[in-house]
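R.M. (postdoc): so does anyone remember the format we settled on? I'll just put the structure tokens first.
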């Protein structure tokens, strides 16, 4: 998974089933060094790797970074959302929609500010915001279809017996 929140969300929804299949979910802490992390992992026929990436859309930085990963034993898949938070249906979180965040403003901080998820000093509180978002997810029904499809493809890939 690209980041900690991605890994926590996948664990919440698919964790039990993945453990039964012997699949481990780990955060990468970003994709800036994806090619190096893939090499460190050492994928092979008996060691498949699936990577979930935020904002994997044409022309994005993320798309350029993942193009260098080429292996029959690795699948990089993604969703169109700026952050995994956006892949949670707004209704599940109790909001009308995810707010637009101006360029140059860190997305999570901008969302928290716009939604009033602030600390005692009035500053955006992404830690508490994430607890709200993750806490709102009870099953796959609380997630957007684009994320569901991306994760299911990765699961199918890494749980295939033979490549």
């Amino acid at each position: 998974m690209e980041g900690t929140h991605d890994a926590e969300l996948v664990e919440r929804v698919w964790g039990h089933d993945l453990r039964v299949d012997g699949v481990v979910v780990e955060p990468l802490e970003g994709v800036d060094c994806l090619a190096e992390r893939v090499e460190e992992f050492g994928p092979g026929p008996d060691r498949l790797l699936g990577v979930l990436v935020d904002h994997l859309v044409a022309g994005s930085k993320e798309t350029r970074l993942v193009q260098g990963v080429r292996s029959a034993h690795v699948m990089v898949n993604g969703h169109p959302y700026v952050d995994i938070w956006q892949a949670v249906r707004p209704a599940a979180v109790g909001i009308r929609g995810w707010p637009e965040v101006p360029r140059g403003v860190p997305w999570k901080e901008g969302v928290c500010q716009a939604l009033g998820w602030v600390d005692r000093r009035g500053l955006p509180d992404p830690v508490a915001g994430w607890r709200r978002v993750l806490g709102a997810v009870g099953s796959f029904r609380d997630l957007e279809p684009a994320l569901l499809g991306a994760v299911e493809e990765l699961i199918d890939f890494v749980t295939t017996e033979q490549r």
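R.M.: ...and that's the designed sequence above, right after the tokens. Also worth knowing: Helices lie at 4-20, 34-41, 61-66, 90-93, 107-115, 126-135, 145-158. The chain is about 40% helix and 5% strand.
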